[in-house]
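A sample copied in:

***
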Amino acid sequence: MRRQCCWIPRFDQFCQISVNNVVSIDYGAALTKSLLFYEAQRSGKLPSNQRIQWRGDSALSDGQSDGGLSELAQHSELVRKLEMLKDPHKMLNIWTFAIALSLPWLFEFARKHSGQYQNSISVAGQFYSSSGYEDELLWAVAWLERATNDNTYLEFITQSWNNGGIRRMFSWDDKFVGAQVLVAKGVLEGKFSGNGNLDQLKNNAEQYICNCIQKGYSNVQKTNGGLLWFLEWANLQYVTSASFIITAYADFLANTNTTIQCANGAVGPQDLIDFAKSQVDYILGSNPNQMSYMVGFGLNYPKQVHHRGASIVSIKKDSRPVSCQDGFNEWFHKNAENPNVLIGAIVGGPDLGDQYRDSRDNYQQAEPATANNAPLVGVLAKLAAAYAE
């Protein structure tokens, strides 16, 4: 075994492990960096163990009333008790109790006052409008059933008029696949009978997976380099979410000793892991451009990420204020690498032709998002454990 490492300034190594001259990716290092990305998204008073040093305190007065806690918090007996507690286990128990008390009320409220949120908050619809509410409601109920074993939620799922059908993607705006997979897990475990709507939800989840892994009736398009292709804008968001669903389902199949019946044959747990790994490997550099689409992983990665904090010099280096217009004039349009490396961020990714234009104004390809990273964290954890030295 031979290990080749390159030092990334101020942070840990990026390593490739060579076994019998076959190079593999260090998924553990990628996992660490994927979590560092979230530290660059923090606001408020930063903790003493903050590792992304270019990030400073921010939004310290958001939600405050008269310089103290928010008005809601000032009058909250729950918050007062939490501040008095020293035992973190007791704190967790109180929060859990408070959440459990609110769940039935929230469920009834959502069921009686259903609708798209931008109908109440119209300005939000200009940026991130919702295409529907049925997916969020079904997913929430599936989680509530999982957490409480309350038959009220199971009955809602069983009687739901919209199970989503076979979806094309799993995203922040379309969560049907998440609900379908949770129900499928219950069916596989023998918790639910595989009848009616529950069985249909399971079938929908599995057909989505079949289409992703190229063994279904309506396979997802792929680039010539092997990357799943969903949309032109932030395609990797949908790749990472698909990879997460596929990886999680591999565990479900392994734990229940079952397979998926796709149009092109039976598919087992290792088939799913192998496919998810191919997508992660592409993201981390095994692609026609030999470019990592995780910032800071490897030597060739996006340098002009579409991210305000990363693209403007840190206040720790230059304390002069930067107005909104200054940000555009002096930094956004500057043809130079970002002054701050957004370690671990997953950008939108390449186009259908496997090409990537590294430019800050190319927001469709160069913009990172928590929705890009979140599913990948789980996949990297699985791969790091499966392919550990």
About this structure: The CA atoms of residues 289 and 355 lie 7 Å apart. The longest strand covers residues 13-19.
